[in-house]
Write a structure and sequence with these properties.
three-stranded antiparallel β-sheet, mainly alpha, binds zinc ion, 10% strand, Butyryl-CoA Dehydrogenase, subunit A, domain 3
Length: 208
C-alpha cells in the first residue's frame, strides 16, 4: 500500500474544480487553471497580510470610530470609549458584543494566525490536529467580526432619523474594515496542509 501523500506523488488538486492530476501537467486538464501542490508563497503572503492588519489595528482603535453631534457640541468616540458608554448606559449586551467583535476577536485571530505560521515553519510545536482545528475556528470567526461596522452603520441610520443629533462614522471605521478584510486574506492565504507536511516529514517537490 502506498501511504505517501498526494503531494509526494506529484499529484495536485485543482483549486478551481477540484480535479486531482499530476502537477507536471502545469494546468488542470479539465478547466485549464494553473496547478500547484500547495498554495504558492502561502506563509509569506499570510505574514504580509498579518503585518498590515496589525499596523492598521492601532489607528482602528485609537482614532474616533464615530462622531456624535448634538446641542452641546460634537463628541468623538473610539471603539473602547463607545464600549464604555454603552456599558455605563446599562446596555451591557451591546457593550459586550462590540468589545468581543472589535477588540477581542481581531487580537485572538491575529495571534492564532501568527501561531499557525510559526508552527507551519517549524518554530512552534503543537499537534497538527489541534492546529487544523484552530485554523477552522479562525476562518469561521472572521466572518462575524464585521459586526462592528454594521453596528456603526445602523447607529448612523437610526440617529439620522432623530435629526436633533447627528452621527457620522469616524476615520477609524476605514482602518477597522481594513483590519477585518486583511485578516480574512491572511487566513485565506494560509495553506493548512503545510501543518501536516511538516508533521509527516513529507518531501514536497517545488511547484512549477
Ligand atoms: Zn480544474
Amino acid at each position: 500500500m502506498d501511504i505517501r501523500s498526494a503531494a509526494e506523488q506529484g499529484l495536485a488538486s485543482c483549486h478551481l474544480c477540484g480535479k486531482v492530476s499530476p502537477v507536471a501537467l502545469g494546468h488542470c486538464p479539465r478547466c485549464h487553471s494553473p496547478l500547484h501542490l500547495r498554495k504558492p508563497h502561502s506563509l509569506e503572503r499570510t505574514w504580509a497580510f498579518l503585518a498590515a492588519s496589525i499596523a492598521l489595528y492601532f489607528p482602528a482603535n485609537l482614532m474616533p470610530i464615530m462622531a456624535v453631534g448634538g446641542v452641546g457640541g460634537t463628541s468623538y468616540d473610539t471603539i473602547m470609549s463607545g464600549v464604555l458608554n454603552f456599558w455605563k448606559k446599562g446596555d451591557h449586551l451591546v457593550a459586550v458584543i462590540i468589545f468581543a467583535a472589535s477588540i477581542l476577536i481581531p487580537i485572538l485571530k491575529m495571534l492564532a494566525l501568527a501561531w499557525l505560521c510559526l508552527a507551519a515553519s517549524g518554530k512552534a510545536r503543537t499537534s497538527p490536529k489541534n492546529l487544523t482545528r484552530l485554523y477552522h475556528i479562525t476562518e469561521l470567526v472572521g466572518r462575524w467580526s464585521m459586526i462592528d461596522v454594521f453596528v456603526v452603520a445602523i447607529l448612523v441610520a437610526l440617529v439620522q432619523v432623530g435629526a436633533i443629533t447627528t452621527v457620522l462614522s469616524g476615520p477609524a471605521i476605514v482602518s477597522f474594515a481594513a483590519v477585518v478584510i486583511l485578516t480574512m486574506f491572511a487566513a485565506m492565504s494560509f495553506d493548512p496542509r503545510l501543518l501536516w507536511d511538516r508533521h509527516v516529514g513529507a518531501e514536497i517537490p517545488d511547484s512549477p
